[in-house]
């Protein structure tokens, strides 16, 4: 049997198999559950989060406590990426506590305030106020 190469074979209960978790682990609490096929660089995650399968979070993002991230949500850490950028510094952003991010949302560098709700498939281009709900592309408050 040929085993696929994976960057991290997860032996911890909170991490599903076949995740690619890489870089410097800033915070990866055992109370936070991570589904399969996630790609997370320099993880900086709060307590009691639920991150579902196929989520991509590059370096530069800080995720608060009790954050739900639906399947296939993706985060960017550069508004204007270039293939050749030796001075690259990740932009990223902050997701505050109790945020819900729907499946397939695309989150560009920004801050999402405490308790905000991001609809499935939303494209978030700018900061979202605490306690608000946004949907659509570009995401708008509803
Ligand atoms: C945003 C969400 C939470 C709905 O919130 P809600 O308070 O029930 O909002 P409503 O259903 O009353 O919708 C309010 C408006 O937003 C629109 N809307 C709701 N969700 C939307 C979405 N994901 N994308 C685009 N528009 C959306 C509705 O059509 C409605 O528009 P209208 O006022 O013009 O009719 C929900 O639709 C959603 O996207 N949940 C995420 C589900 C998910 O990803 N689950 C993953 C686990 S499997």
Features:
binds coenzyme A; mainly beta; disordered N terminus; 142 residues; 7-stranded mixed sheet
Mean pLDDT: 92
Specify the structural class.
mainly beta
Fourth CATH level, the homologous superfamily: Hexapeptide repeat proteins
**Rg calc:** 15 Å
- Give the CATH class: Mainly Beta
CATH topology tier name: UDP N-Acetylglucosamine Acyltransferase, domain 1
Question: Strands of the largest sheet, in order across it?
Answer: 2-4-7-10-13-15-16
Q: What are the distinct ligands in this entry?
A: coenzyme A
Count of helices? 0
Tell me what the structure shows:
- A seven-stranded mixed β-sheet has the order 2-4-7-10-13-15-16, with no helix packed on it. Strands 1-3-5 form a three-stranded parallel β-sheet, with no helix packed on it.
- It is mostly beta strands and 142 residues long.
- The chain is 0% helix and 26% strand.
- It is globular and about 40 Å long.
- The termini are far apart.
- The chain has a single domain, classed as Hexapeptide repeat proteins (UDP N-Acetylglucosamine Acyltransferase, domain 1).
- It binds coenzyme A.
